[in-house]
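Researcher: Sequence recovery benchmark, item below. Answer with residues only.
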């Protein structure tokens, strides 16, 4: 095993431990530990992907997630919108990465029913949320959720790990959105949000990394061949 591989393994272990500590703090109500560990999650994951040889833009996407994590936990309404903007920037980074790997809709023949299903899910969810959101949140939530849905749809073309990450990200942010709309929340809602969020970021990052290393390629069996044939060249 090379030194870089050992470093990557250590960093991945550190991310796993930090995630477990954060989730345990949420369950136990240890607010100080939860607040301290949350901003550290994505930088450690970003360090891991860099050590594993993934592109820098992937680390940038994760660091935008760190910015969002930090701003959202302040509880300030203005900073909340800035945090949403950070997550949106992270999704733009993901979409650029996907496009370079041939997974963006402009470069493939889309499955019409599947695209329609994602579009209908986005439109229906926004329509349900709209009356219960404050006026200043309606357009930002609608725009951000459209960007997130696009990320999740494009991730389907990159392989099963990235596809799972996109779906988990949808679930995590759907839970957050229902909280913004003051809907009834499930038990341990914040724990559920962070569990699905950390798993989503890891799965998306690992999906991109595996595409680069050849473990998963757009168009390979199990990686979404039904959605079109594209080049397997990565950038």
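Model:
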């Amino acid at each position: 095993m090379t030194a870089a591989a050992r470093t990557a393994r250590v960093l991945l272990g550190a991310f796993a431990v930090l995630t477990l500590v954060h989730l345990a703090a949420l369950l136990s109500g240890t607010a100080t530990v939860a607040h301290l560990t949350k901003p550290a999650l994505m930088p450690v994951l970003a360090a891991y992907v860099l050590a594993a040889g993934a592109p820098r833009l992937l680390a940038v996407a994760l660091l935008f997630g760190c910015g969002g994590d930090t701003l959202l936990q302040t509880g300030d309404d203005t900073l909340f919108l800035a945090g949403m903007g950070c997550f949106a920037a992270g999704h733009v980074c993901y979409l650029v990465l996907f496009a370079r790997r041939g997974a963006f809709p402009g470069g493939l023949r889309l499955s019409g029913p599947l695209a329609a299903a994602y579009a209908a899910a986005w439109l229906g969810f926004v329509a349900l949320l709209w009356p219960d959101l404050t006026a200043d949140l309606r357009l930002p939530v609608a725009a951000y959720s459209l960007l997130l849905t696009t990320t999740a749809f494009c991730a389907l073309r990159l392989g099963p790990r990235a596809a799972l990450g996109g779906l988990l990200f949808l679930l995590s942010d759907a839970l957050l959105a229902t909280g913004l709309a003051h809907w009834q929340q499930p038990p341990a809602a914040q724990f559920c949000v962070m569990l699905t969020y950390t798993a989503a970021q890891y799965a998306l990052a690992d999906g991109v990394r595996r595409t680069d290393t050849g473990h998963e390629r757009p168009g390979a069996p199990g990686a979404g061949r039904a959605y079109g044939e594209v080049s397997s060249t990565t950038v």
